[in-house]
Amino acid sequence: MKYDWSSHNRTLIGLTVPMAVEQFLRISMGNINVFLLGQYSDEAVAAVGVANQFITMGQMLLTLASNGAAVIISQYLGAGDNENAERSVSVTLILSLLMGLVVCPWLIFTPQLFVEHINLTPVIMEEAAGYLRVVGGALLWHGIFGALSATCRCYHCPRLPMYAIAVMNILNLAGCVWAVFVTKENVTACIAWVNAGSTLAGTAILAFGTVKRLNIRWNRSGSLVSYIRLAGQVLHIGMPGGLESVSYNAAQIITTGMVAGLGMVTVSAKSYLNSIVVYIYVCGMCFGQACQLVVARMGGAGELEKAQEFVKRNFKINLMLNVGISLCVIVSRKTLAGLLTDNNDIAGLVCNVLVIDLFIQAGRALNHCYTSSLRAVGDVRFTMTVMIASTWLVSVPLCYFFSVLSGMGLYGIWLGFAVDECLRGVLSLFRWRKQKWKTGMERRLAEIENMGI
Fold this sequence. Notes:
This protein has helices at 6-38, 42-62, 64-78, 82-109, 112-115, 122-137, 139-154, 159-183, 187-213, 224-260, 264-300, 304-331, 333-340, 344-376, 380-405, 410-434, 437-450. The protein has 453 residues and is mainly alpha-helical. The protein has one domain (6-450). The longest helix is centred in the middle third of the chain and has 37 residues, at 224-260. The chain is globular, with a radius of gyration of 22 Å.
């Protein structure tokens, strides 16, 4: 009898659309800052671009628990174990808070420690450190927001974080316009405080909505041992993914150092490119995350063969999303670059590199689909090993060879990124098709059963 995919497809669409809107709005917060700062100073754009790389690394660390929780909670819900699913929510919030209390003080009190090793002018370095101090300190709320957002997605209520992000964007836009066009003094610092304040407001709104809307028993009792076991499960999934993200972002910082010696034009162009390309792959990324949640539920329910077919069917959609959107951006790249800067040298460099980015997006489609699905079934050691090895043995060396030794500059950086992305995607594809992950998932099903199912 042929399996009816309609319910899974509805779930997939219902998760992807709000998640994509949420991510577009989240990305827009940082890019609004870059766009408005571009009307003020290209040096300020370079400073915020450098600071944002460290902020992104902090965000990855603070969402470490929520990334793991998205899989664990979905697996328990798929297995019908609502009790441990609810306990996992509480564990995730506690872990996110603790991580924030560890990471944020470093960014608040020692921002120069992070930016001083990049080849920046004194003015840009000072602005970058000031921005990092304020926005980095507010990352505590980002961690809480991530935990609540993951919970809403697992319980099929992804619109709540979307609404909260919308409010954050409205507040951020109003504040940034005021800073750039009204105050016209200490603009970078003003925008940093606006970003921090809007993040706090959005987190408060999401927390209120989550408590009111979701049918979760927050006072769920349980032994300390059971909570420790759940924390271990969340970190078992979240830690490798977090280390992957931190490793990847550290490599991005190193490549920024590579191009910093090539001048302000190249550094600013890389900042503008980062602002554009994230919009290219956000739909495919959210589709992959939605697929991950569905696969995790399938895994928790023991539907391993159905999960295998489900992932295979959805890869084609992911590829069409990434490549299709990339082609649209390539066609309109001159207009986009002109909106970001009036410097013809920067705009021309951005336009040319966007063509190379098409190959990166094809590789990302593989990772969005197959790497995310491997995480959903707990095969996280493989994905972590491949990511870290490829980043430091392939991406960074190739970027240095092409950009510095071969004199290709920013073109060489993007070429190195393309090789790395495609290599990791192909390896994940082969891993999924070999089905070695099924053995680990069967052990996970036995563990869920032993916890009270």
